[in-house]
Amino acid sequence: MMDETTYNQLVSAAFKRIVAAADGLDPDVLEAESTGDMVTLTTASREKCIVNTQRAVRQIWVAGRGQGIHFSYDPASGAWKDDKGKGLELFRFVADVVRDISGEELAYPA
Q1: Taking the CB of residue 7, how many other CB atoms lie within 10 A of it?
Q2: Protein fold of 4-102
Q3: pTM to 2 decimals?
């Protein structure tokens, strides 16, 4: 299991990337709120995508599309991947949820 400092750095970078992408959309369509261990993306219709830390197991949890998915960091690929081996990747999953609930495409900064 990765150490806490590394986990915190990876989570911070992931959350900043998600918020930056959300900030690229009209705030009347999607609003991002970051509160330490959680990022909440809320649409005008009040639908939400919640991205949260799971510190005890060093994961990121995403609630959206009627499901909760846990993502673990894979150092070999440098990506957050779902812990059930379904081939889901954190940023793509969040973008898919945002598209489903808002109709807008989330574009991540490089």
Answers
A1: 19
A2: Metal Transport, Frataxin; Chain A (3.30.920)
A3: 0.95
